[in-house]
Amino acid sequence: MGNSGRPKKEGLDRVIKVTVNDEVAEMLDNTVQETGKSKSDILRELIPIVSSKDYEGLIPNTSMEILQKYSEKCWEILHTPGCVFEVDKLSDNMPAFVVAGGRPIVYVKYPTFKIQVLDKENPLGSTSQQYIEELLKNVRNRSYVCATKADYLVVGGKLEKMEFPYVNEVMCLEVTLSDNIICKNKIVDILRNNNFNVSVYHSYCIRGVEVELLEENKYFRVLS
Fold this sequence. Notes:
Elements: H1 22-35, H2 39-46, H3 52-58, H4 64-78, E1 85-86, H5 87-93, E2 96-99, E3 105-119, H6 129-135, E4 146-149, E5 152-155, E6 158-161, E7 166-171, H7 177-192, E8 196-214, E9 219-222
Antiparallel strand pairs: 1-9, 2-3, 3-7, 3-8, 4-7, 5-6, 8-9
């Protein structure tokens, strides 16, 4: 049986634990013999979710509940006991990516909300980030307020050029969609109660877990 470049280290060849009928099991055994791939390699090829790039493209027009399910399934698969993954192919099949520098981590993308903050009295100008931070100081699991490029904004139904071409934004960083909805609602309520207009957009955040890199960084497995 050929090895097809399969990693040789101890523990890399363990099989994903799934329930299959006798016919499927026989098909898997035959494929193993013909290709030299492990059953875990074969099963991973049968269960692609959505690519990391396509996941981002789905965000504006796809139910966030569906995106959440994609993310949860990706997290579940990555934590399959004994399963290894190819670093370079991960993002082609899942909404995830590996950062190999320093402490290697795999990150999974999750749906969330981005909130733009506009001063009602000066909608085209700038507002102190420190002031907004103070207003939101008791909201947990959110990003710091940051300024992002925005040359034009829709104000009163018209496209207006920004005097200061940046707008302050804050993002919810919870893991579950339900928690991100709660976080978003808290932020929106606080800002509106303090004379700010807000615009809410769908976006994504990331959740990471440490991994072990194998075979000269070609493969990885989740440590926790």
